[in-house]
Amino acid sequence: MIITYLNFQNFIYAYTNSRLGKISDIRLLSPIP
């Protein structure tokens, strides 16, 4: 449950940075925040 939450937060973080024009593909593909 916690791991899933962290993965979700990491996805949102990467998606947000991507929207800001930053390259966050590594963060997005990484399961560890």
Automatic annotation (TrEMBL):
This is Uncharacterized protein. The lineage of its organism: unclassified sequences, metagenomes, ecological metagenomes.
